[in-house]
Design a protein that fits this description.
By secondary structure, this protein is mainly beta. It contains 4 helices and 22 strands. It is globular, with a radius of gyration of 19 Å. The two termini are 18 Å apart.
Length: 274
């Protein structure tokens, strides 16, 4: 979705391009050892896949029926540093929930394994940890800029191991849409009414962001992990379903994403190896 090369290829080819020629594995690490960011796009000659294996350049993903193993061998940008290690995601249960995000049903979202355990074993930088994980999927039948103006998304682990997700979307056509679901480790799910939405402090790039809370006040921004002209990722402290939770929160401004200045800035964070 963020690839400027894919957007340029679509413009050159009358609106269509080969997605297999524009693949990338994105890894973002945050911690005391410093941040790492990799998102090198690979052309078709560097990509191969089967039902259980996906190779993108030197990195790969493998599903064995019980766990998704991600072997990472990439280079940090913009300062070149090796990023190498393994991430293993173990779903506690697979989920079949899928819903449309727009009113025409052209854009769909569904958590594959919203309640998972993760094992992170990095060789470079050297560290490891175990914890709660989340895995989902987005797909669309048209470019994202055709369907949406912006959105906020957040997920939070609940006290009993469930995961609550709020997807707050502003489509280009029609009223806004809010999807609020609570997912259990066994793959079941239950909708809930999202509480009132509050405006959060703008990001460093003055990108608007918002999130719901039951506390009758705006959630607290604990930290901002990614701050870009079109996208911001944060950790928030808020209240959902009667619980005080820490949520991973993302805001996306799509007109900014597709603006000419941002499209020319993106290759600095997303090099291409064709």
């Amino acid at each position: 979705m963020f690839s400027p090369y894919y957007a340029w290829a679509r413009n050159r080819q009358g609106g269509t391009a080969d997605p297999e020629n524009h693949c990338a594995l994105n890894m973002a690490l945050y911690g005391k050892g410093g941040k790492r960011w990799t998102m090198t796009e690979r052309g078709r000659s560097h990509v191969s896949r089967s039902a259980h294996h996906y190779q993108i350049g030197p990195s790969s993903l493998r599903w064995d029926g019980q766990a998704l193993t991600i072997d990472i061998d990439e280079i940090n940008v913009p300062i070149p540093m090796r990023v190498r290690g393994r991430v293993t995601v173990r779903p506690e249960g697979l989920c079949n929930f899928v819903t449309h995000l727009d009113h025409a049903g052209l854009h769909r979202w569904g958590p594959i394994a919203p309640c998972s355990r993760v094992e992170v074993d990095m060789e470079n930088p050297h560290f490891s940890w175990r914890g709660h994980a989340y895995m989902d999927s987005n797909e669309g039948d048209e470019p994202v800029e055709n369907g949406f103006q912006d959105w906020d998304w957040a997920r939070a682990e609940m006290a009993n191991g469930d995961t609550s997700v709020v997807y707050d979307v502003r489509p280009k056509q029609g009223p806004g849409r809010v999807v609020a679901q609570r997912f259990s480790p066994d793959g079941s799910y239950t909708p809930f009414d999202a509480p009132a939405r509050y405006r959060l402090p703008s990001s460093g790039w003055l990108l608007a962001r918002g999130m719901c809370s039951e506390l009758n006040q705006a959630p607290e921004v604990i930290s901002t992990l990614e701050d870009t002209p079109f996208y911001v990722r944060s950790l928030l402290r808020t209240q959902l379903l009667g619980e005080n939770v820490t949520a991973v929160h993302e805001s996306l401004d799509i007109p900014r994403l597709v603006s000419l200045p941002v499209q020319f800035m993106l290759p600095w964070r997303m090099p291409r190896r064709a």
